[in-house]
Specification:
The complex is a heterodimer of chains A (220) and B (130). With 220 residues, chain A is mostly helical. Chain A is built from 10 helices and 4 strands. Chain A has one domain: Leucine-rich Repeat Variant. Chain A has helices spanning 2-13, 26-32, 53-66, 69-75, 81-94, 100-109, 113-126, 130-139, 142-156, 161-170; strands at residues 47-48, 191-194, 199-201, 211-215. In chain B, a hairpin with a 5-residue loop joins strand 5 and strand 6 (100-104). The radius of gyration of chain B is 15 Å and the shape is globular. Classes of the chains: A mainly alpha (220), B alpha+beta (130). Chains A and B meet through strand 1, helix 3, helix 5, helix 7 and helix 9 of A and helix 1, strand 1, helix 3, strand 2 and helix 4 of B.
């Protein structure tokens, strides 16, 4: 009896088992990733932050392709700005019109610059709340107003931008496919869309003529 | 946009080489079209490019999931204001045999650095055209 009681006491004193990475949701794992700036991200300027880029890419694909809508909606209220941002982005791409009110609230009121950007972008993808997008364009600081301006284009376009993005993510990416471009080696192939919506494959021009490719950042 | 504006000034050099020049945007078609056809950014500030309607000579490609950017190793590497991580801008040059011969990240140091960076890329393109 004494042994049994000792065992029970020992079990009660043990720390709870740590949640494994596998059992955490994709959004929870996104929160665990390393991002520049730490708690004071407003001091982060325009700088290269290579560490963990493959993790950021892989998890973004996973969130957009597989995260359930309930957890994404809950993510809009998460205390972590990165989680709110990614949840807002994913809900716009997933075309979740039920999130429009919550996204509008974030676009207008979230204290974090990047959350307001992602929220207003998603309203453009959803083609909802034009009055909110226009209000953000008028009242917010330059970067957010810039995103709102582009969201108005998406809102008014006949194209379903969310579906285009969704379909591109649905192709997926494996880690072994990332970072294949090495000087001195064969240029890796990729696909993209031309402005008339046709599929372009680099391999269709590779080996036929000299090629220059510029990968742009955001909207610089 | 500065890189594209500078390249547009020298587009004849790329045309003479018979080169294909692409701009990959990790955005949907609407935003990629705006980038290609409209000069919203530099028209807002006084610059040599403020009155141009379009600044992009390259063929614009939409890569909305950033998959091509990830294959080329530039995705989600560049911290912007607020901590969100975007693509790290980069030039690549590929020769007539399909070999990658040049990769360079623009410094965004000063306006004059943009010119040199585009010149460096064009030099690499000339070698790739041989």
């Amino acid at each position: 009896m004494l042994r049994l009681m000792s065992a029970i006491v020992c079990l009660l004193l043990l720390p709870p088992p740590l949640q494994s990475q596998e059992s955490k949701s994709a959004l929870e794992r996104y929160r665990d990733l390393e991002f520049p700036g730490g708690p004071d991200a407003s001091k982060v300027g325009f700088k290269v932050f290579e560490k963990g880029w493959q993790d950021r890419v892989a998890l973004e694909f996973e969130i957009i392709n597989t995260a359930d809508l309930k957890s994404l909606r809950a993510g809009l209220k998460n205390e972590d700005r990165l989680v709110r941002s990614m949840a807002a982005r994913a809900l716009g791409i997933r075309g979740d019109k039920a999130s429009a009110d919550a996204l509008a609230d974030l676009a207008l009121n979230d204290p974090e610059f990047m959350v307001r950007i992602r929220a207003v972008e998603s309203l453009g993808l959803l083609k909802m709340k034009l009055e909110v997008i226009e209000a953000v364009k008028k009242k917010d600081e330059a970067g957010v107003a810039w995103a709102a301006d582009l969201s108005i284009d998406q809102f008014k376009s006949k194209l379903d931008c969310a579906a285009q993005i969704r379909n591109a993510f649905a192709v997926g990416i494996k880690r072994k496919e990332m970072g294949l471009a090495k000087v001195g080696h064969a240029a890796p192939d990729f696909s993209a869309q031309t402005l008339d919506g046709k599929t372009f494959k680099l391999s269709s021009v590779l080996g036929k003529k000299p090629i220059a490719i510029y990968f742009a950042a955001f909207d610089q | 946009m500065h890189e594209q504006a500078q390249l547009r000034l020298k587009k004849q050099e790329a045309i003479k080489l018979g080169a294909a020049v692409y701009l990959v945007q990790s955005h949907d078609l609407v935003r990629t079209r705006v980038f290609k056809e409209e000069n919203r950014l530099l028209s807002r500030v006084k610059s040599p490019f403020s009155k141009n309607k379009s600044l992009v000579f390259s063929t614009a490609l939409s890569d909305p999931a950033g998959r091509a950017a990830a294959i080329y190793g530039v995705a989600r590497k560049c911290a912007m204001w607020g901590g969100w991580v975007e693509n790290d801008p980069c030039w690549f040059v590929i020769d007539r045999k399909g070999i990658l011969t040049y990769a360079a990240h623009p410094s965004f140091g000063t306006p004059t650095s943009y010119i040199k960076e585009v010149d460096d890329m064009l030099d690499a393109l000339k070698k790739a055209a041989l």
